[in-house]
């Protein structure tokens, strides 16, 4: 071939190839525009077309992975994240490793998921809390919860049904079902019709029937979903697209965000007078409301500034005058670099929510947070699965509830499931024996207390085996069982009641004492609203000092109390001051602080009838203003 023509041919080829690349990049840019507007189905079509033409880039592979990830198609997401990590390792961001790890869990590739989380941790230099534990899956599956679940008949095949909410005696939920309107609007996130709120009746089997659209102006041509009814039934808080006063608003990228709205009850069963909540903003989403059982706090999900991950859980006080308090992030104990969403607060005060930011079974898992114990746990199977499980609600009185999942269908076809928690009927049996002889100590006094040291029940250990039975422990709770008998040291053990019905046996051993110190160590008393040590109290404390010096093996737990006058918080603080002055007297007189423990109990352990509002004499109140002493280790 003539070299001149060869050169021209080569130049034309290079120019054509360059033009192809430019055209491909132009298509990717179009896909990115759709992606940034959450039109994931449209962006996928563009990206796939470009990828099939042979074009490759880190941005293309990551956007394909993300678009499938956000539509819960985790199998496809894994395939594209895999290409991204294999071919463009240096370009992979921590967030992409995090989403890749979550997608791997949803297809049960747990070992590979752990590796991706390790890379995420390395890039983030995250030396603190790890949201993944290699033993999580084994632990969750070994502690299968006592729930029976059923798919609702009201689900519409091929459409999404989710976001169940208690609506009086009925069920409120969101659905994309086509109910025969002339025009069906299609949302480009997932290529499904827009959501509306529906109401159905709940029958005795937990099934939902006769579903119809919520009446009134709440439903519009755009999305309405995830609603919560106020405890008094007068207000409905719900999620909607940013569509207020017939105006459709968007952020600087032309993206329409989600907002929270409030509707008030009018005549009959209709909610109207829809208003936007004041802490929404066009630049971020605020969604998925849940009201605390006392009606004082509104919980929700948002990606507003200050969010730790892709979306966090937040709360705001609902003031009596109808105004709102300051918006507050629930913090790192709950929120992760992933998505925390769909909160629900049960009558038990616990917070239930879904997250893909922890080492669960896969996709979104339901977790529960106990505010009192500061404990977070995966709610386990069968509620959770390897797919997305979310919008969990629970009536703790009946043990019945509902949640949504895509476990049985196409990733975009969510269904609602009902569940019932089987009744837990456990029994706690306590036997009291002599530590040395192992003989039963019939007649010993046994008390069962909660972890706040409040006495729940007490009685004698009866013959023939010094047995005391507590017939109403709550499953999943911890208790303190204390046994005492004259001539013996008092002993206490913690016992955990499993989640499932069972009989729990506990043996408490009491050790005989050489001296009945209880005859010599008496309570000390305080003046009303005072914490100083009176002369008569000092005399009793001097006796304690004497015995503690003679018996260096013993230690003492000091427990201080108040009478019922004054508010609870003040009395708790007063009892703490009394406890401190009691211990400081002993320390000042030569007793090592290491041998002393104690705390104040406020007015929670009165010795007589003198509770709030009861007319008592000063002498009767005096009996409650005391520090008492529990001898230990002797």
Notable features of this structure?
four-stranded antiparallel sheet; OmpA-like; 634 residues; alpha+beta; Outer membrane protein OmpA-like peptidoglycan-associated protein; 10 helices; Serine Threonine Protein Phosphatase 5, Tetratricopeptide repeat; Immunoglobulin-like; elongated; 4 domains; WD40; cell outer membrane
Q: Tell me the distance between the termini.
A: 107 Å
Count of spatially separate domains? 4
**Order of strands across the main sheet:** 1-24-23-22
* Quaternary organization: single chain
What is this structure, in a nutshell?
It holds the Pfam family OmpA. By secondary structure, the chain is α+β, with helices and mostly antiparallel strands.
Describe the structure.
This protein is α+β, with helices and mostly antiparallel strands and 634 residues long. It has 4 domains: 3-128, Serine Threonine Protein Phosphatase 5, Tetratricopeptide repeat, CATH 1.25.40.10; 153-352, no CATH class; 427-512, Immunoglobulins (Immunoglobulin-like, Sandwich); 517-633, OmpA-like domain (60s Ribosomal Protein L30, Chain: A, 2-Layer Sandwich), CATH 3.30.1330.60. The protein is built from 10 helices and 35 strands. It has a 4-stranded antiparallel β-sheet with strand order 1-24-23-22, with no helix packed on it. Strand 2 (161-167) and strand 3 form a beta hairpin. Helix 1 (3-36) runs antiparallel to helix 2 (40-52), helix 2 (40-52) packs antiparallel against helix 3 and helix 5 (94-106) runs antiparallel to helix 6 (110-124). The longest helix has 34 residues, at 3-36. It is elongated, with a radius of gyration of 32 Å.
